[in-house]
Amino acid sequence: MTIRLPAPHLSASRLPRRRLLTAALAGTAAIPLVAIRTRPAHAAEFSYKYANNSPVTHPLTIRTTEAAARIKEKTGGKVEIQVFPNNQLGSDTDMLSQLRSGALEFFTLSGLILSTLVPVASINGVGFAFKDYGQVWPAMDGALGRLVRDEIAKRGLYAFGKMYDNGYRQITSATKPIKTPEDLNGFKIRVPASPLWTSLFKAFGASPTTINFNEVYTALQTRVVDGQENPLSLIDVAKLYEVQKHVAITNHMWDGFWFLANKRAFEALPANLREIVEAEFNASAIAEREDLAKMNDTVTATLKGKGLQFVDTDAASFRGALKKAGFYEEWRGKFGPEAWGVLEKAVGGLA
Length: 351
Prior knowledge:
By secondary structure, the protein is of the alpha/beta class. It folds into two domains: 46-123 and 131-166 and 256-297, 3-Layer(aba) Sandwich (D-Maltodextrin-Binding Protein, domain 2); 168-253 and 302-347, Bacterial extracellular solute-binding protein, family 7 (D-Maltodextrin-Binding Protein, domain 2), CATH 3.40.190. It contains 14 helices and twelve strands. It has helices spanning 17-28, 59-74, 92-101, 111-114, 133-140, 143-153, 195-203, 216-221, 232-237, 263-267, 271-305, 315-324, 327-335, 337-347; strands spanning 46-51, 79-84, 106-110, 157-159, 164-168, 170-173, 188-191, 207-210, 227-230, 246-249, 254-262, 309-312. Strands 1, 2, 3, 4, 5 and 11 form a six-stranded mixed β-sheet that branches. Residues 1-39 have low confidence and may be disordered.
C-alpha cells in the first residue's frame, strides 16, 4: 500500500532525515497497523474470499476451512482463500449481491434462497418430495443437479459439482407441539428469504416471517416468532434448544448448500488452479455429508438431553394437506414441466 503524507511546509529534500521520519510517523499514526502491511515476496497470486451463514463449529465451516488450507498447499501458495463464516460479511441476500458483483469470490447458499435469483434452484425444497438420502444424492449429483447448475451459470455464477448437506428440516416451537397440519394454523414461524418456504407454510395456514439466520435466536427469544424450522444438527450447533421447547420430526424439506463462485473471478484462475480449487471443495462436500450423517445418528439423544421434547408426525397427512391446498400444482406450474419431470423421475409422483 502507498501511504500519502500530508503536504509539508518544506520540501522533503530540505528536511533533515530525522524530521522527515518524524513527519511520516505522525502522518500515519491513525492508520491501523493492518492497513500498512507490505506485501511479502511470497504473497499469493490470487487472494479470494469465501463466506457462509453457518456457525464456526458447523461441519460446513470446518470442512470448507480445511479445503482452503489444502488449496493453499497444493497450489504452492498461489491461491489463498480467506473464510468468513456465520454471516460475518452480511445477510444471505447481501452476500449473494457481493458474489454477483465480484466483491466476494465464493459463497455457499441454500438453493431455496438462491431461488430469488435462479427460480429453479429451490426445486430440491419442494415439501415432502425426497423420502430419504437414497433419493437426494442421486438426484442432486445427477440430472436434477445438472439442470440447476445450468441455470445458475446463466446468471454469471458457477456452481461446483457437489452440494454440501444441510439436512432434513424439522419444526421447533416454544408454545405448543406441532403434531398435525392443523397445528400450524396461525403459527408464527421464521422462514428464510425464499418464496417456496413462504408458500409451503402458508399452504398449512401458518404465518411465516422472513428472518436471516443470524437473527433467529433473538427473534425466538423475544417471541417475534413462536417457532422455526431447521435441521437438527443446526438446532444443536446454534443452541436454539435454549429458546424452544418442542421439535416436530416432520422431514418436510431437504436442504443443501450450493458452493458458488463468481464466474469471472473463478475463470481468472489458470485451468490447473481451477481444477485444484473445485476438486478440494468437492472433496470437502463429500466429507461434510458424512459428518452430517454421523451427527444425525447422535443429535436426537443430545437434544433430548438438553430439554427438547420430540414429537413424531405422519408425513402422509402433511403431504395430503399440501396436495389439497394446491401447493404441488402451483409449483409444477412455476418450475415448468421439464424441471418438474426431472424431479418426479427422482422421487415419484407428487401432484
